Amino acid sequence: MRIQPTTPPSPPPVATAPTRGAGTSSTRLEQDGRRARRARPARVARFWANLATYAFLVAGALLMLGPFVFSVVTSLKTPHQFNTTWPLTPPDPVTTENYTALFGEQYDFFVPIAVTVQVVLVLVAGQLLSSILAAYAFAQLRFPGRDALFWVYLSTLMIPAVVTIIPLYSMMTALGWKNTFAGLVVPFMFGSPYAIFLLRENFRSTPADVLDAAKIDGAGVLRRLWQVMVPMNKPILATLLLITVVSQWNNFMWPLIIAPAEEWNVITVATAALQTQYAGNWTLVMAATTIALAPLVILFLAFQKQITSSLGVTGVR
Length: 317
What we know:
By secondary structure, the chain is mainly alpha-helical. Helix content is 67%, strand content 0%. It has 14 helices and no strands. It has helices spanning 20-75, 79-84, 97-102, 110-140, 146-154, 165-174, 181-185, 193-204, 208-216, 221-232, 234-249, 253-258, 267-272, 282-310. Helix 4 packs across helix 8 (193-204). It is flat and about 95 Å long. The chain starts with 19 loop residues before the first helix and ends in a 7-residue tail after the last helix.
C-alpha cells in the first residue's frame, strides 16, 4: 500500500491593518476641518469687532480734527466766499489776504504774539522751578506738618479760578501793576497745586536705593534733586511742560481783565478783539486762531514720545 504524503493545512488568512500613515492623515484632515468650521464664526466676529473699533476711532479722530480743519479752511477764504458758501467748502481760490491783514499796520499781530511768548516763557520757567522744589520737599524731605501742609495746599484745587479774580485784581491794582508785564505773570508764576501733586507722586516712586547711593557718595539735597531725581523723571517733566504751555498760551480771562491796553494784549485777547459789534470778521478770526494753534501742534509733535513714556514710567532706567 502506498501512503500519500500529508500536507500541512494552510494557516488562516490574517487581516492586514490599514497603513498607519494613511489613517493618521485622514483623521488629522477631519480634525482640521472641524476646527476650521468652529474657528470661522470666531474670525468673523473678530473681524466685525475690529471694524467697529476702527470705525469708532476714525469717527473720534474726525470729530477732534473737525474744528482745526474748519479753522484752516476758513482762514484761506475771502469774506464774500465764506458768507455765500457752505462752511466746509474748499476755498476757491485760495487766498492769504487774511494773514496779510493780520500782520499789516491795522492789526499788527506781531505784538500779541511777542507778548504771549514772553508771558509763557516766564510762567513756564517759574512754575516748573517752584513746582520741582516744592514737590521734592513734599516727597523726600521730612519736616513737621509736611503732609498736612501738602493736603491743605492741594485742597485749593477745589476753589474755582473765577473766585480769585476779584481779590487778585484788587491786589494788582493796589500795587500799580495794571497794564504791566508784572501784573500778567506774577499771580501765576509759582507752582500750581496740580503740578506739585503730579511731581510729588512721581518723586515718591523713585527707588530709595538710588537716592541713598547718591547720599553715600556725598551728594547733598540739591545735587540729589538736579542730578538724580530730575533726570529720572524727564518724561513727566516734559508732560508737565506741555500742560503748562498750553494752559498759559490759551489763558484769556486774566489778561483781558488786568491788561486791556492794546500794547499788552496776548494772542487770545487780540483774537477776540478782531470781532466788532457789527462785523464778525470770521475769516480774520480763523486766521488768528490757526496762528495760535500752530505752535501748540508743533510742541505736541516734538514731545509726543516723552508724553507717551510718562504714561508707563516704572522702575529704574
